[in-house]
Amino acid sequence: MDNVLEDHVLFDRWMKGDTNGFSALYERYKNRVFGFLVRMTGDREIAEDLLQDTFLAAMRNAQQFDRERNFLSWIFGIAHKRTIDYFRHVKVEYEHILDTDRSLGKGPDLPDSGLSNKQLNAVINEAVRTLEPMQREVFLLRELGDVPFKDIAQIMNCPINTALGRMRLALKNIRKELKKRGIHGLQ
Amino acid sequence: MDCSKCEEAGLLLASGELDQAQTDEMHRHLADCPPCKEEFSQYSLEKKRLFTLLCETTSPDLDHRIVTLCCRPAVPTGMGLFSSAWIKRAALSALIFALGLTAGGYFTYAYYQTRTSGSYAARDKGSTATQSASVAGVSAAARKNNDTAQNQPPAAPTNEKRISPGAGASSQGIVTVDLKKE
Fold first, then answer.
1. So what's the ipTM on this one?
2. Is the pLDDT of residue B90 over 70?
3. What pTM was computed for the model?
4. How far apart, in whole angstroms, are the C-alpha atoms of residue B7 and residue B81?
């Protein structure tokens, strides 16, 4: 809650022209938003452009920010819109991306023990890639953005139960994919 | 609580979206149901690990670019009417209005020019007939007046100025003479 209050204070400072306000907000959330964009697009360069677009759009539409809402939910909502716009622009359907991702093949099966963070990261990436696009989006919004389900439902324009169902399936599929690669649990 | 609903309720519990009554009910169920408790604990642990694994580090160049772009003087909240977009729209509207006004003025001027030159031409054409008709009218009226004056006794002097029909018509420049009859 303190974090939320602090976000609002930083946001107000940013709007008053204090560059430290923006820098602090950006530093706090850049890696989460970038992680979301990288996994949604599957391309770091595109994700970099979209990250820039996201924060610029936030600056342009600052007046639309609802103070009752969480700043992170809002910024993830913008990132979601940018991603959708990007896919519309390049005329690529989610299903197509899914097929492409699957056609890339699975990563190497790694032994359970002695996995470095980098290797585990690669395995998780592969597991996330195998998710249905809608499941992937709910999963990333929830896990990276810490966006509440009611906000996810609003962002994705679906009932909250649908969002919950997608999340449940996403977790189940990720566990299944990890198990295939010999990883039993992420503890 | 039913175990089939526990999974989704667990997700809502983790995101802090359950009210107090629902939270209590969920905790009671977890205390009584070891499989659901294990499932919930597993998710809580996975959540922390997943978060670290899913974050991506940005490059310093990208950070610098974004911070530079987004730290330009911001528009103060509540000043939307005076934003640059609004000014652009107002300027465009004014330009369109000015162009419309100029075009309208030009066409009105051209219309009156055409109409005026047309009426002059018509007047020039009709003036010869008007003059001859006026002269004829005046002479006819004078003749008639003379005849009347000769036949009638002289009228009492008056200050009223009398204008002969022919003279009046010609002085006003409006002549309604049927040339065929004349």
1. 0.77
2. yes
3. 0.62
4. 48
